[in-house]
Design goal:
The protein is 27% helix and 25% strand. By secondary structure, the chain is α+β, with helices and mostly antiparallel strands. A hairpin with a 2-residue loop joins strand 3 and strand 4. Helix 1 crosses helix 3 and helix 3 packs across helix 4. It starts with 5 loop residues before the first strand and ends with a helix.
Length: 254
């Protein structure tokens, strides 16, 4: 598939003065479901990982829009879950395998009772059965970059958000960047996390100086200069990345 370059012009404002517009040229912008808003919750990791899964399915021509509130509700059943409900993309994958998942229309708020069944195309599925069609067991790989640990081995990430004590495959940051860029170029969904936030990577762009950025789908609504998107430079990716989740198919791309 050829690359279509689309130039977007956005004006950035501060409370005191108007800055010059920032110009980004989109090299790749993958399909995505509508931007959601996590509100005051600390569940960005749920929104980010679900958004990555949704983009993955859209690339296959299979549209799914999943409920973050279902996962948040299921998380309450976990005896070790933190009160602030923080977690990581790998946490989301674990919870899907254990409790299943439902569509966004079936559960649009945390107050909605969690559905036991999913109805699609005239058929009835349990949440667990539906989850297996959305995210197969061990379909995704969790990656990290830690210079203090041995590369090309699975390591623990010693952060409170990793309360399930998942292990992540450790890569040099330049290798992780290359793997992530390639996955996005081939239209795979990717979840990205730093120490404070998580977003789905949905594209690649560059600015007027040729500096490259990942286009991120955020979960803070659309009332912002980029209508729900964020632009994270490759240099910021190198400095801030804690974890990345993608399919094993995406990881094995040359």
């Amino acid at each position: 598939m050829g690359v279509i370059l689309l130039t977007f012009h956005f004006s950035l404002f501060t409370s005191c003065f108007r800055k010059e517009p920032k110009h980004f040229t989109h090299e790749v912008l993958n399909r995505m479901t509508p931007i959601k808003d996590q509100g005051n919750s600390q569940t960005c990791w749920i929104y980010a990982m679900l958004a990555a899964i949704e983009t993955e399915h859209l690339a296959w021509g299979d549209s799914v829009n999943l409920s973050p509130y279902y996962i948040e509700k299921m998380m309450e059943r976990e005896p070790n879950q933190p009160e602030n409900k923080r977690g990581m993309g790998k946490t989301l994958l674990n919870l899907i395998q254990k409790y299943g998942i439902v569509g966004y229309d079936a559960m649009r708020t945390i107050e909605t009772p969690a559905p036991r069944y999913v109805f699609m195309a005239g058929a009835e599925y349990t949440a667990q059965e539906f989850a297996r069609s959305v995210c197969r067991p061990n379909e995704y790989i969790a990656l990290t970059c830690n210079d203090d640990k041995a590369y090309y081995q699975e390591i623990d990430i010693d952060l409170p958000d990793n309360w399930m004590h998942d292990r992540f495959y450790n890569l040099p940051v330049d290798s992780l960047l290359k793997k992530t860029e390639r996955a996005v170029q081939e239209h795979h969904g990717v979840c990205w996390e730093n120490k404070g936030h998580a977003m789905a990577i949905v594209g690649i762009a560059h600015d007027e100086e040729g500096k490259k950025y990942f286009i991120m789908k955020n979960s803070w609504g659309t009332d912002n200069p980029y209508r729900g998107l964020e632009y994270i430079s490759f240099s910021t990716f190198r400095k801030q990345t804690v974890a990345v989740e993608m399919t094993k198919e995406a990881f094995t791309l040359n």
